[in-house]
Predict the 3D structure of the following.
Amino acid sequence: MVDKPALLLVHPSKPNGPSTLWDELRQLLAFEIANGGQISIVNRLDRETSGLILVAKTAAAARRFGLLMQQKRIAKEYLAIVSGWPEWESAVNAQPLARQGLHEPSAIWLKQAVHASGSEARTEFRVEHRFTKGGDGSQRFSLVRAFPVTGRTHQIRVHLSSLGHPIVGDKIYGPDEDAYLRFIEKGWTEQLERLLFLPRHALHSAKLSVPGVGKWESPFPADLAKWMHDPR
């Protein structure tokens, strides 16, 4: 089990790119790899998402964990800071998901969307805490725990956005998808900070349980806790 920090890529995206979790694991497990081992990432996380990642070091473990994933027997819990106060204490979003560009124009190739012809997707949600910011308490936010049953691309982010409570800092599914394009062009700016509040989306892989293997928990990251408890 690996506890990934935010802003670290899991896999290399281009030659001579920045260091990735994959690179670090290959160095750390060089002896095992030289003796017939391997590295298999079981549950991938987006670059900006922090928290737990399950890594298989042998082909047998990779097959076992892969089968458990297909059977939906690996339990995962995420924590997310979202905009607004949900009217519900718990909710289920079972809307199917598809790549948006397959059905309507999208400037972002990987962007997903709710669509009737998409793949099965199901996420359960529970509100953990509601709070305000902005000095006068005019800005409402919530800490939500997410239980993804399936594992579609950007599933938690899309499902929360479709419920009207996008994740704080989300450049694609937040208040304006052009924020992602502006970030790619110019990096993090004061304009983006006013719009998104945080330089990374506030999503954390907090708990993971594998039958017959173990249970793990990752503490809520300091950057998100600091922002959440700062009243400004």
Notes: The radius of gyration is 18 Å.
